Amino acid sequence: MIPTKYAEKRVLGKLAIGKDLEAVEELERMTSERLRKSRGAPGNDYVMAAFSYRHPSRFSDGTYGVFYAAKTLETAIAEAKFHRQAFMSATKEAPMRLEQRALTAELDASLHDLRGKEEQYAHVYSKTSYTASQNLARELVEQSNGLVYDSVRDGGGECAAVFNPDAVGDCRPERSIVFEWDGKKIAMIYELHERRG
Predict the structure, then answer these.
(1) Structural domain boundaries in the chain
(2) How far, in Å, CA of 136 to CA of 46, rounded?
(3) Cα 45 to Cα 51: distance, rounded to the nearest angstrom
(4) Do the beta carbons of residue 54 and residue 60 sit within 8 Å?
(5) Three-state secondary-structure class, residue 191
(6) Contact in structure between 95 and 130 (CB atoms under 8 Å)
């Protein structure tokens, strides 16, 4: 069994894509069963989105949701950049600006700890295949709050894959980040500031 360890209290959640985000969020607030269930808990809609809109990922085969987070903004950006760039390349998208929303949240749970165990769990840390990591997660998802692990996309960074939405609280937008996709790669990343006055 993987030892559990108390995770860091402050984490950054995954970056949310923001094209026409306000209009989409308003429509979703009016129609989403997920949001109706999560009302009353500030930021809970951001957390529940990860559990409502399921897709295959490192620690999910798509049959259950996972809330991914990073310990630092730099690691969250590195992880989001890798996955967004892979998607944009696979779908051969034209150059565009991708607005992302960085979220910050409190993580208060014991998590299975894979940090510093890349040799022992080499297949789980694969950069090209999620088979082993999905198999491990399938064994743990019903009995665990999630995993804390070393970032695969940012050397020295730490990430969490949370299986239990109750482990994440006070989730809120922290800042807006822009990825400039040039048609082949994300060529530039910068913070978006609102102009005042």
Answers:
(1) 4-192
(2) 25
(3) 10
(4) yes
(5) strand
(6) no
